[in-house]
């Protein structure tokens, strides 16, 4: 039996269709006992996205970005978030999109990106799946100051940190972005070992 055999969608309603689409779904789910249970869930329908951690082996450095995030602010985080550069795919292949996003946000034109894994970041509420990449960079690959696209509301600061400092920032709570944490831990285990 597949999961498709255990789910019967009964009703889907759009609650909001702005920056993202919020839907409410009524469905029946067959529990492990075989009993059917009616459930209701709200989901944010988001396109898939990609994130990248540029790294420099010789300098033992990584590139991260710092920017304002309204949801974090609403939850009481009174600072800019330090993150991995990332963006929504917008119907483009993940490798192509993340190269463009890295250049927009960080100012680095990355030549080769390496996909390391995929993950649902909040599968209980958001449909988005992220494609995670690492990419080696050299100072000569910097083609602009980065900073994102002002017409998209981006006001991004580019950070070049040592891998050791970035890992310490996870430990002391200065980096709390899941994308950055996952990619930095991947880099510590597989890139900078």
From TrEMBL:
Q: Where does Mg(2+) bind?
A: 86, 101, 105, 154
A GO cellular component annotation here is: cytosol
List UniProt keywords, sorted A-Z.
Hydrolase, Magnesium, Metal-binding
| UniProt keyword Metal-binding, yes or no | yes
Ranges for the Nudix hydrolase domain? 45-183
The answer on whether this UniProt entry bears the keyword Magnesium reads: yes
Catalysed reactions, as listed in the record: GDP-alpha-D-mannose + H2O = alpha-D-mannose 1-phosphate + GMP + 2 H(+)
Q: Where is the signal peptide?
A: none
MF terms per GO, please?
A: hydrolase activity, acting on acid anhydrides, in phosphorus-containing anhydrides; metal ion binding
Q: Which GO terms describe its biological process?
A: nucleoside phosphate metabolic process; ribose phosphate metabolic process
Cofactor(s) the protein needs: Mg(2+)
Where is the short sequence motif Nudix box located? 87-108
Quaternary structure (record): Homodimer.
State the family it belongs to. Belongs to the Nudix hydrolase family. NudK subfamily.
Q: What is this protein called?
A: GDP-mannose pyrophosphatase
Organism of derivation: Bradyrhizobium nitroreducens
